[in-house]
Inverse folding.
């Protein structure tokens, strides 16, 4: 599976969910990463990002975890999870369990996740 999705929950104004996945054949492993971000355009809004694709340089779970760990905590990112698997279509297109159960801490600010944008460049 290859693609991305954004799901908005809470007071998110006019922001719309988006889903765009296709079945992809990978020559190696597949990955799925998911993360939430608390944003405040019109109140409190959580955005759940999911990116799936073929593992290539820069989009393996170890690299994505390192990039997530280096993010500024004030950006509002939380609930990062990443999984790799070894057969075509094995990677989920829905948020991973650790992301679904994640709860934001206080003091989130508005920004969009750089990690998601980096990973989706490889989709």
């Amino acid at each position: 599976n290859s693609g991305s999705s954004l799901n908005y929950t809470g007071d998110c104004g006019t922001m719309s969910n988006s889903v765009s996945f296709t079945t992809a054949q990978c020559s190696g492993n597949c990955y799925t990463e998911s993360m939430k971000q608390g944003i405040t355009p019109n109140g409190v809004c959580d955005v759940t990002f999911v990116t799936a694709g073929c593992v290539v340089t820069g989009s393996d779970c170890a690299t994505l975890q390192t990039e997530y760990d280096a993010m500024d905590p004030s950006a509002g990112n939380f609930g990062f999870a990443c999984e790799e698997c070894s057969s075509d279509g094995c990677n989920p297109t829905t948020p991973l369990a650790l992301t679904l159960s994640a709860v934001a801490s206080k003091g989130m600010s508005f920004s969009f996740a750089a990690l998601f944008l980096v990973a989706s460049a490889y989709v």
